[in-house]
Amino acid sequence: LDTNIFLSHLKFLDELKDTVIKGVGRPLLVVPWVVLQELDSLKSAKESSVQRNASSAIRFLHSCFSRSHPRVHGQTVEEVNTEVNNLAISNNDDRILHCCLVYQAKLKGQGTVVLFSNDVQLCNKALVNGVKAVDRKTLLSELREICKDPHAVPTAYSHTPEFSVRVGQTAMMDDLLCEAERIMKSALSTAVEYEMLAAYDADRWIQIVAIKPPWSLKNLMFLLNKHWLAVFSLLLHKKAREVREELNTHVMKRHSLNTGKL
Questions:
Q1: Which residues pair with 114 in a beta bridge?
Q2: Nearest CA-CA partner of 164 in 35, 88, 78
Q3: Residue 89 in contact with residue 96, Cβ under 8 Å?
Q4: What is the rounded CA–CA span in Å between residue 38 and residue 54?
Q5: Using an 8 Å Cβ cutoff, are 30 and 1 in contact?
Q6: Which residues face 73 on adjacent strands?
């Protein structure tokens, strides 16, 4: 992951880390050491929007690292010091490319490293060195192409022994939670749209709803809170409020970006 992805697409990354991609599974997100350094520097940038986005990204990563998220991995200092293909490093783009090459070597042909960046020249450097590179628009289509190659997708839970990825029971429990949240998201999306349509009319509800679809699970919990009195409290049993609050606590804990925005 390049720094610009954290600044521009943090919400997308929060969804991506737990999303099952057909033929690929859930991706492992790797954060280069230099990206952590750049975010640290950008939190003091002159532009307030850059400061805010960098700080949100730092909080997001801390949330993932502190609870040992099994699919968000930070490059270690040991990995930074690994020599790869006599690469001469002269700038931060080269350091991100170095991270890609280190992980490509670790995979030993049992998976595919994909650079996710909006920097065209960095993508050029990656492509020249045999690393697939995508931006936000081409990510999903490229992953679909990768899944056609049986050697490009590692077996579930086995991104090779070198990765410090949690396996076994921890990974299985995380998969179960992710699947439960996927089902909950699907059910709540249907319910929210149905009840908003019932409370208003086909033309008005989409203008009134606080967040326009498509919705993340975090969005849906916000909508239940936002429209509770006007819509949902009239339709659901009093006990449902307690359930909603418990679900909201769980969802915010797992998906907390601490940005104040949804």
A1: 132
A2: 78
A3: no
A4: 9
A5: yes
A6: 30
